[in-house]
Amino acid sequence: MPSSFLQLANAIASHAASLQCAPGVVGDAIRQLAQVTRSATPRASFTGASSHDHGPLLADALTATGSNLITHALADLREPLPWHYHYPQRDDAPDLAARIGFAELIGPRGPLAAPNSRVGFTLMAPHTFYPLHNHPAVELYLVIAGTAEWIAPPLQRLVPPGELILHPSNQPHAMRTMQEPLLALYAWSGDIAAPAVYI
């Protein structure tokens, strides 16, 4: 198991610890992210095969953003993240599996383990719409690269790098990229077993 996955988890923990933790659920989610990433341990049985090669898209996203601990750790990974897309194909957007990828770093399918948590990355190509979906897990997002439109009906707003978004359990949400790719860190808590589904 390459130590670079642990270095990435430590970089996330350090970044989370540096954030100004607001009171309430967002602050709680940030503190939980810091704790989970500090306590993650390597999974002996991990195999890192990806269903799609998102390496070039990840490189574009990292080039488009300023450097920080997380981007440095991502650039220094000696083994690729396990990129997957788990949704069924849609007739109205048949190429989403090539335009959107999810890579779990910590969780049941990731190279690292921590109790009752999933932490990973969402990567989206430019000019891509991630349709309305929901999941029982509470989800914290940290945007790393790319300004994208975040939609949680009836609200929608542009979210730049560095901002946090919290989705309560089962809240419908969608994202739309524009001229640049989106790279965002996600952290799931609560019911992490039930998958996200399109609405």
Blueprint (SSEs and pairs):
Elements: H1 3-18, H2 25-39, E1 41-42, H3 55-63, H4 69-75, E2 83-84, H5 96-99, E3 100-106, E4 112-113, E5 118-124, E6 129-134, E7 138-145, E8 148-152, E9 155-159, E10 164-167, E11 173-177, E12 182-189, E13 197-198
Antiparallel strand pairs: 1-4, 2-3, 3-5, 5-12, 6-11, 6-13, 7-10, 7-12, 8-9, 8-11
Helix pairs in contact: 1-2, 1-4
Could you explain how this protein is built, in words?
It is a single chain. The protein has 199 residues and is an alpha+beta fold. It has a single domain (3-43, 50-191), classed as Sandwich (Jelly Rolls), CATH 2.60.120.10. Helices cover 26% and strands 32% of the residues. It has five helices and 13 strands. It has helices spanning 3-18, 25-39, 55-63, 69-75, 96-99; strands at residues 41-42, 83-84, 100-106, 112-113, 118-124, 129-134, 138-145, 148-152, 155-159, 164-167, 173-177, 182-189, 197-198. A six-stranded antiparallel sheet has the order 2-3-5-12-7-10. Strands 9-8-11-6-13 form a five-stranded antiparallel sheet, with no helix packed on it. Strands 1-4 form a two-stranded antiparallel sheet. A hairpin with a 2-residue loop joins strand 8 and strand 9. The termini are far apart. The mean pLDDT is 93.
